[in-house]
Amino acid sequence: MTHQHQFPVLLSDNNRCDHLGATPSFARSLLLAAILAGCAGLSHAAPSASAQGEGLVVAQNAEPIGKQTFAGWAKGLLLIAPRAGLAAGEFENALKPHNGKSRIHLKNINTHIVDLPEGADEVEIMRELKNDSRLKYVELDMAVTPDAVVSDPYYGNSWALPKIQAPTAWDSANGSGVTIAILDTGVDSTHPDLASNMVPGWNIYDNNADTNDVHGHGTMVAGTAAMAANNSNGSSGVAWGAKIMPVRIASPDGSVAYYSTVAEGINWAADHGAKVANISYSGILASSTILSAADYMRSKGGVVVVSASNTSGLLSYAASDSVMVVAATDSNDQRASWSSYGSYVDISAPGVSIYTTLRGGGYGNASGTSISSPIVAATAALIISVINNLSPTDIDQVLKSTALDLGDAGYDIYYGAGRVDAAKAVAAAQSIIKSAISLDTQAPDILITSPVGSTVSGSVPVDVKYSDNIGVTRVELYVNGQKFATDDIAPFAFAWNTSLLSNGAYTLVAYAYDAAGNAGVSPTVSVTIGSDTVAPVISSFNLVDNMTVSNKQAVTVTATDHQSVAKIVLNIDGKQVAVSYGNSLNYNWNTRNIAKGAHIATVQAYDTANNATSKTVTVYK
Fold first, then answer.
1. pLDDT (tens digit, 9 = 90+) per residue, 51-61?
2. Catalytic annotation, residues
3. What's the CA gap between 53 and 63, in Å, rounded?
4. Same CATH fold, 445-529 and 7-144?
5. Count of beta carbons in the 10 Å neighbourhood of residue 217
């Protein structure tokens, strides 16, 4: 089996508490490119039970936003989540046209790892399925890479510990009673500074208990978080009293992990007692599947901490309340030159020349946001060891509110809320025990955005827009006053099957709940069930009869529909040359080599009920 890679363009929505529940996507468009000759050294070993595709697809010459690139994706796989309320058998029906089959159902997050037939174009199938109203999200099983770089192996000063005031924090907390899951390349459990803190983990990639470190990255991360103290070896981790749970998500050579292995790793850690999960890999925020898994861990009282990446540039990920994103600072509290930045960054921590454990029993220095992330994860463990029933939202608040403000006053895109301060975080946790930080009386706001006042039929996507001062934990949809479905996995979205209902008027109401039990109710939406026989309207087509086309002719088309436009197809001289999924199409027609004379251009617009309209023009070269 072989794997190949391609690179997505990431679109950003930086509102942290206000989400549009339409089908999300880590990449709304993909820049396809040629096979990357320079990646011949990448492992071609297939992932096992979780990420096992036909190989790893690799590409170059792409233009990812903010310099962030991905190692690629697992060939022959897609990650797909059905909408809440989808009728039995409809998910399989959605896959049938593409001969896709669910291999693994990640029930905790209601996401399927779907096998595609040999030779299938997973990018094209993904793009088509994104327009299926029965599905919440569809994404490639992207490969993500570790963020750390090892340097200066003989430097032994643990400057980061006094910088974040860890020794002061240790007067009150050391992480005892808390388990930190290290989702990584494995951990060297025989290392003399880690062995006493190890608990059993799992190898997600190979589906077995062998969590030995296949690369070295995971051992560095684990030591930063929780290497043992007072044992006459090396130094100590930030939370040296915490336990380390190794969860191997990486391929056998440690070069990549996959969205599917990361999500499964989070689920496994949450179900086996971890209260903190650290993921020191790039590109985590690009995956709806991983963010859903992070929300599952938060539902069990845990938090997920991830690295910001080492591109040195601005990245345009959407900010997320599901994970804590960590940028890197140096010993002078300045941003590390290679640390990525953007509005997705939550907090910062030391990440330059950090003394830690190495695979094989040694010690050395590591640099990268991979190392900053476990410092924050370990600080979260210190907080939890003080008050173990603190909500994930409150853990986030403690970390951010006690951080040392750096850069511009208040939040900024380089340092987030500031550089983590372990002593202040622990002190704040102690004061919370009798405080009212978690007393939330504000109800969420919610609005049904689709359908609104229209005639509907078949499987109808119901989308909601919601916000809350803390966070929405579930949404319920009511039809004619009766509960139709509950979605407790963000982003919240529903599929309402109207095929068995009588034609006529119906009312839709959505309720949004937060963790404190406060409920917000949407305005009532009235819709009519009936057959959709109205075809889309081609509202603009820049080619007109008898026009003369240029050597490089731009073709633009837009269409409208009373519900939604599913796709637009452009045919020239009887041959399909372009297809766009949505209400607009743009195509650059190279006419240099076409014959002189008349040419026929036809555009067709389809809605979700497969009603179609077309327009044909004759142009001349």
1. 444 566 654 33
2. 184, 217, 370
3. 25
4. no
5. 30
